């Protein structure tokens, strides 16, 4: 199984369990995320958490050994469209969702984290929109969501176009990460939600509803689909296929 879902004290946890491959997203992970988002709607869920197993990676994005079989724009669109709609759903969930970034978060992994409400990042972790290295753009809605949620325009443009993973402290400086933690991730999570959990769960839900109204009104869904489409168009081109082949063959 590529994921696990657990619920503890009102916190629904989704963990990608593919540490050998830096928790890259395959079809099973996509199914798991779908299930997680569905379960988050249950009344006994007060927070959602996404994390990766192990101490190296949160998520290294799409599993290139799986998705390199997508050759045409239409094939790529099918996966990007599904992931983009999932991340949109994640962003407008009724409860706050925390990305517990226990290690590297790059490519689609950084997009998943961007769709969450909070990003708690381990002191030694790095994150970034590295898609440009593969001659594509973000395709799961991460850039649109960050822009809509108010990330500073120049910082966002630099993050996406330089395509370099940045250290945790810098990610806080540019307004992407919420807080840096050191030590055990579950202890950090517990500390982070402590004050919010002291109040009735309807409070956080109500504020989240207020703040996500903007996401619903601004036709964000449509723009996210444009982001997915743009990525699918580039995906089909030779520079992307050449970059993926180079990554997959680099140790041969
Ligand atoms: C759909 C949009 C997208 O998300 S496109 C995908 C964007 N992601 C990437 O380009 C990440 C590619 N991966 C990397 O840059 C590196 O593997 C990172 C994550 C930095 C880790 O580097 P390092 O610590 O040196 O480990 P490594 O490269 O030896 O990796 C260990 C094994 O994991 C694999 N891996 C990692 N990430 C992916 C991935 N996204 N897709 C497929 N495989 C991945 C590596 O290939 C490696 O496998 P193996 O042990 O050589 O068999």
TrEMBL record:
Chief location category: cytoplasm
Keyword terms, alphabetized: Cytoplasm, Lyase
Listed EC numbers: 4.1.1.94
InterPro entries xrefs: ClpP/crotonase-like_dom_sf, Enoyl-CoA_hyd/isom_CS, Enoyl-CoA_hydra/iso
Span of the signal peptide: none
Keyword Transport: no
Top-level taxonomic group: Bacteria
Enzyme class: lyase
Catalyzed chemical reaction(s): (2S)-ethylmalonyl-CoA + H(+) = butanoyl-CoA + CO2; (S)-methylmalonyl-CoA + H(+) = propanoyl-CoA + CO2; (2R)-ethylmalonyl-CoA + H(+) = butanoyl-CoA + CO2
One Pfam family this sequence matches: ECH_1
Keyword DNA damage recorded: no
Entry's localization field: Cytoplasm, Cytosol
Purpose: Decarboxylates ethylmalonyl-CoA, a potentially toxic metabolite, to form butyryl-CoA, suggesting it might be involved in metabolite proofreading. Acts preferentially on (S)-ethylmalonyl-CoA but also has some activity on the (R)-isomer. Also has methylmalonyl-CoA decarboxylase activity at lower level.
Similarity comment: Belongs to the enoyl-CoA hydratase/isomerase family.
Protein name: Ethylmalonyl-CoA decarboxylase
Organism: Chryseomicrobium palamuruense
